[in-house]
Structures are given as structure tokens and as C-alpha cells.
Amino acid sequence: MLPIITSYFENNTFVIITFTTELVEEKITFNKDEILDVKWISKEELECMNSEKLRDERLIKRTLNMLKENKLYPLDVIENL
């Protein structure tokens, strides 16, 4: 798990918890009534994207940076929240 981040937008506070994972299967299953499209994006692709392609470029780049710096924490950190 990466560090927990708080973000503020229009008088709302968001708590963002990002987990690291390993790809087990490339096939993606999703509800087509709720989601238009999905795809896998590599870290390298994300690093090259800008605010036109990313919903929150600053947050995503910050998250990628933490991943590069190996700022990982065990899941126990959030177990008792």
C-alpha cells in the first residue's frame, strides 16, 4: 500500500488509499451499463500523460513518484481505521 493521501475539492475532503497489485489476468471484466470502457495502462504510459488525459494529473504523478521511491506500507496500517 502507498501512503494515504487527503485531497480537498469544493469543501469536500477525500481520503485516497492506493494499493499496489500484480496483474494476474489481462482480461478485464466490468459492468457495461455503468462503465463505458476500461484498459490497462502501464506506469510508463501514465508518466507520459498530461492533464488532458488524466483526471487529476498532480495526484497521479505524486502517486507514481511514491511508487518509484518505494514508499510502501503493509496493509496492517489501515486494518484498525
Task: Output the keywords.
globular; two-stranded antiparallel ribbon; 81 residues; alpha+beta
Polypeptide structure, described:
The protein is built from three helices and two strands. It is of the alpha+beta class. It has one domain.
* Computed structural class: alpha+beta
Count every beta strand, where a strand is a DSSP E run of 2 or more residues. Answer: 2
Helical stretch count?
A: 3
Major pleated sheet: 2 strands, antiparallel
Gyration radius over CA: 15 Å
Q: Which strand order spans the largest sheet, edge to edge or round the barrel?
A: 1-2
- Residue stretches low in confidence (pLDDT < 50, at least 5 long) are none
What fraction strand? 5-15%
Order of helices and strands: EEHHH
Helix content: 25-40%
Topology:
Layout: E1 5-9, E2 12-16, H1 43-48, H2 57-68, H3 76-79
Antiparallel strand pairs: 1-2
Summarize the structure.
With 81 residues, the protein is an alpha+beta fold.
